[in-house]
Amino acid sequence: MHSFTEENYLKAIYKLQETNGEVVATSALAQVMGVHAPSVTDMLKRMGQKKLVSYQKSKGVKLTEKGKQVAIGIVRNHRLWEVFLVEKLGYRWDEVHDIAEQLEHIQGEELINKLDAYLGFPEADPHGDPIPNAKGVLPKLKSVLLSSLKEGDQATFTGVSDHSTSFLHYLDKAGIALGDTLKVKSIEQYDQTYTLTLKGKKEVTVSLKVANSILVS
Amino acid sequence: MHSFTEENYLKAIYKLQETNGEVVATSALAQVMGVHAPSVTDMLKRMGQKKLVSYQKSKGVKLTEKGKQVAIGIVRNHRLWEVFLVEKLGYRWDEVHDIAEQLEHIQGEELINKLDAYLGFPEADPHGDPIPNAKGVLPKLKSVLLSSLKEGDQATFTGVSDHSTSFLHYLDKAGIALGDTLKVKSIEQYDQTYTLTLKGKKEVTVSLKVANSILVS
DNA sequence: TAATATATTTAGGTTCGTCTAATTTAAAAT
DNA sequence: ATTTTAAATTAGACGAACCTAAATATATTA
Q1: Domain B144-216 falls in which CATH fold?
Q2: pLDDT per residue as tens digits for the range A82-99
């Protein structure tokens, strides 16, 4: 029975707040963490004491400023370690998540800043997700969904919104890689598929689901 | 109240076995870990169940083969991460211990082997301690204490037997660094001090205590 | 060998993060 | 507005790693 720390909860709350709005429900948290609701209630009480979250019973939970800073720090760690794993150790982008999940909890401000410098202060991780800087500020990567493009539009593949291994594998197999220039050759209205021209050479046809998971700018 | 895992105990037992012989006493373990004896008894029982140690009450404890392999793995991780911190991130040798103490518990065979390759399969960490290879074999660095040299002898500084920050600082301040060629210019019998010539230039006088903490070959 | 001193274990308690089962609170539907 | 359903909390328990105080076992010394 795998046990979670405050940091794990902070990160999960942070991610839920990003996608589902300011206030997070006990059940939502329980669901994403794979834990039962009473465990969450317990933990939230403890974290409330420590002023990491503001928690009022049966009213959901929000990160305090303090909690948010910790959460962003973990996201920063995670993404920098992912860059390290891919750039320096030669991992593929679909392999690094679990290892980074461990490395993100290594403590030490100086360490992560040195790592950041060593990696050349990257702005995005191998999936195109923005990396908060040492002050906790996220660079705004103004990207849009591939599905928002029109026929003839051209853009650079900058990130994914679906981080699942299966999707990453799919992209690899289709020969679509981060940094590629994608041109929308045609959009088939009836079955909502996109035919893309890659780097002026290859052509691939992808579903709307895929077009909705690819970020470009 | 800082809490330890099985891995922490395994490493501590391993180190005690190396220096104090095969069988380790409850109290010795309690002492080095900074924990009270009953906590150790408890933990040893649990670890005995899992066949990580062979434990018979009031008779001390020994690592099993399984436990030894895990312990060596941790030592390998620790020393490789130390090399990383010094070689890649630019830390000094006296700063890396605590961070490596965290990093040594990151799980994943593949990760550590990739790191090993990335670092060029080093044989020793920044303090001159041998790094076990992927099979758990320690390279034998046949080094001796500086204090075993005679007047006129010359050797290379390959490691330290005292890893304390204060000693490492002392060496830095004295301008003695790993890899240096040391020549014993003279030994003062009465107060047991060694006057060393460094790289044919500088001269330093050190106490017997220091000469006993420096490894050369 | 007996007495003392030291090391170790047992007994019983705490905190943390989990669980299930039962209860209460809040939201949705009639 | 009442009933029904769903969400959240409380109650009570467990395992892991810790603690203190008391009891036992081992070693040392007289």
Answers
A1: SH3 type barrels. (2.30.30)
A2: 999 999 999 999 999 999
